[in-house]
UniProtKB/TrEMBL annotation:
It comes from the Bacteria. The keyword Transcription regulation applies. Belongs to the LysR transcriptional regulatory family. Pfam families: HTH_1, LysR_substrate. GO terms for molecular function: DNA-binding transcription factor activity; transcription cis-regulatory region binding. This is LysR family transcriptional regulator. Residues 10-67 form the HTH lysR-type domain. InterPro entries: LysR_HTH_N (IPR000847), LysR_subst-bd (IPR005119), WH-like_DNA-bd_sf (IPR036388), WH_DNA-bd_sf (IPR036390).
Length: 327
């Protein structure tokens, strides 16, 4: 086992010198590349070998070659120096974000959120390249855990998520969504909704799991006439008068504005779910990722303030209450 015999700090110049010598196979060539005299470079390596307690190089007539210990340390040294370079680059670009950011959102919020975020980011940070994907909240969660995404918007399931750090965006209300000629009412109960021809996602879908959980607590049977995970088909069937569904209002805001659908708040019990901003927890966030995350939060706040996204609470609301489920 290799042990560190030096003080509290490692000499990064010596570590960099070690990598350059390993790459050139020559102390004299490395000295020229580093613009340092050869005896001083040899002293740096001797000091590093003393601190590590191992021999890093074997000398021969043509130069030097790595020992087995040196080869193992080389891999670690490259990682340390690469991360340090990334840290310095990140600090230099903190006020000028740049780079690619892949982010994902659930299909239920994609239409209202993706375009404004891309437009605003392009205007503020032209060096940031965005790649946006949509899918079910569970898919977005999986893409975050696999490292495919840098940033995601997901729904809280009430369970800890391995490999993901989260913070709440808002708690949204669910609505009974019906054709425009449905009877007008101020509110609707879940029992009234269950008596309609419901078009809902399949039982494994997060929204359906929530609806079924609330219904079971109330002793209400949920028996949809159609089960589909295709959000567009779900909404189109309601437009055609085939039945009704349960969704956040933001998912059908265009249809509501143009009079193609009617949305009624669910009460007794009311049902809400928490929208979360999520990032992988196995790597630091780049400046570009932080900038996009801040813009997503700002856009959600704007949508909530305009009434387009009816909500129970936002982070920083006076009551400070961000419930995971509101039943």
């Amino acid at each position: 086992m290799l042990q560190w015999h030096g003080g509290d700090e490692m000499d990064l110049k010596s570590l960099n010198a070690f990598v350059v010598i390993a790459e050139t196979g020559s102390i004299s060539l490395a000295a020229g590349r580093l613009n340092i005299v050869q005896p001083a470079l040899s002293r740096q390596i001797a000091r590093l070998e003393g601190d590590l307690g191992v021999t890093l190089f074997r000398r021969h007539g043509r130069g030097v070659e790595l020992t087995a210990d040196g080869q193992r340390i080389l891999d670690h040294a490259r990682v340390v120096l690469r991360d340090l370079a990334a840290l310095r680059d990140e600090a230099a670009r903190r006020n000028f974000p740049a780079g690619e950011v892949a982010f994902g959102t659930p299909t239920t919020v994609a239409e209202v959120l993706i375009a404004p975020v891309i437009e605003s980011c392009a205007r503020q940070w032209p060096e940031v390249k965005l790649r946006a994907v949509t899918g079910y909240s569970g898919h977005v969660q999986g893409w975050l855990q696999s490292g495919t995404l840098d940033l995601g918007v997901i729904y809280d399931t009430g369970k800890a998520l391995a490999g993901i750090r989260t913070s709440p965006l808002l708690v949204e209300n669910l609505f009974l969504v019906e054709p425009p000629d449905a009877p007008a009412r101020d509110t609707a109960t879940l029992e009234e909704a269950a008596a309609l021809r419901l078009i809902l996602p399949n039982p494994v879908h997060g929204l359906r799991i929530l609806i079924d959980m609330v219904a079971a607590r109330q002793g209400i049977a949920i028996a949809p006439v159609v089960e589909t995970d295709a959000l567009a088909a779900q909404i189109d069937l309601v437009r055609r008068g085939f039945g009704a569904t349960i969704l956040p209002r933001v998912s059908v805001f265009r249809d509501l504005r143009e009079g193609r659908l009617r949305a009624t708040p669910l009460e007794r019990p009311g049902i809400t779910r928490t929208l979360m901003l999520a990032t992988p927890d196995d790597r630091p966030l780049s400046g570009a990722t932080r900038a996009v995350a801040a813009e997503i939060r700002a856009e959600v706040t704007r949508l909530a303030a305009t009434g387009l996204w009816p909500h129970v609470a936002l982070p920083g609301d006076a009551d400070g209450d961000m419930p995971k489920w509101h039943i």
